[in-house]
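Design review, sub-item: ligand-bound model
Attendees: FS, YL, KQ
YL presented the inputs for the iron/sulfur cluster complex:
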Amino acid sequence: MKKDWRRVSLRMALCYPSEYRVGMSGLTIPLLYWLFNSHPLVACERVFHRVGQEAPKSLESGQSLRRFDVVAFTLQYEEDYVNVVSALKQAKIPPRRRHREGGEYPLIIAGGPCAAENPLPLSEFVDAFVIGEVEPIRDELVDALINRSLEELASVKGVYVPGLDRERISRVYVKRLDDAPFPTSQLIVKAPHGHKLAPVFDASFKVEVSRGCPRSCRFCLIKRVGAPFRLRSLEKLVELIDEGVELTRVGAVSLIGAAVGDYPKLLDLIEYVVSKGLRLTIPSIRADAITEELAKLLSKGGERVLTIAPETGSEALREALGKDISDEELWTALKAAKEAGFHGVKMYFMVGVPGETSADVDAIVELARKAAQLFGLRESVRISVAPLVPKPHTPLENYNPPPLHELRSRMDQLRKALQADRRVVVELYDPRRALIQSILSRADSSVADVIEEVVERGGGLGAWRAALRRRGLSLELALEKWSGGDRPWGFIKP
Ligand code: SF4
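KQ shared the predicted structure:
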């Protein structure tokens, strides 16, 4: 969609601070792009940028960020903060908001889950943050942006303007999902599988089933900043799928939501998709939702790999984390998937969680081996393991992650135990990156200097190490310095 700039009052660059294929794999960019472009006074264009890349240009008209009235970032991961600052620098926009005062620069705004968890690490760079969901405030937000008024922006519910006195900021959210607008004419990336632009999942129409989650895992940010749990009605979903499939002409549907497994009419919904001859994707589903019947339907819909998140290998640790899934439920899900014709399973785990011992790490190995025995094929079991990142607003917000050497030793334990097993693929998230995320999730605005220096040094782990070392800090010391003890994010009411 390319709107005529002469006919609108607000030119907005919607910037995803990471790879195109990552941004276009999720629902956020298609949803925001459509939401802003459906406002008659707004032309919204997409921009993707990572540190180390050249000056970002919009995809639709090839314009530099400087030519827009507003640059709107969506913050999905803390690691992307350096990409935000890099995008501004590369576009010759002074990254610090105080250096933009009185200049002819775009307003810089940001939203997304990381803005709602703690906007402070980027508060030196961003003029205004949207805390929560933008649909209920879109029109007011657009008016304030057209008027270029920070005071007006600050008066919009859910908007935090760092330059002005801050009070308590209440998160804004859609009350009834059925009433929220939803794009049926979505942008679909049709790059062939394996192409560098191809999305993580094959081309599909994405339909958002729910927001939030009724469960209470103690580490989970989405539970807190996505509350309350809301569902679209089956009738509404059917209507959206019919329209979306007709408009996009794709043969697959993705069911999006953190708690798709908790959708009360999930079987009816999947049956409907399958009955229309469409393929089905569910990026991840709770293991205890997988019954024989559901597994068969998913298999009929073309799913061949089950994706679940047991989080830990041991049931006791899982329970301590508030993840109420038993070993038996996990095993039942795996068996149902195998019997229904699935080829394998992908499982997400965490290490470095409170109370974890070496035996708990062994329990991950055991579960992976058990699954490998069941599916039997080479590379049929994929386990993805990442250190826990404590998140503001969660019961674990004050938890201190183990030091780097301990996290490494847990990862080594896993790698060594499974490296000879050809049926299991082990993907280990670099613990240094997890510690950087832990720093950024709980830091206050004083971390801005470090972020800027990391960008100047070209991004990456080496740049982080050098920027911290220059301040006499290791990763662990930085984590201690920005441990969030006084809850700097406390003014955000999630
Ligand atoms: S089930 Fe998933 S989305 Fe729900 S609280 Fe637990 S981790 Fe979060």
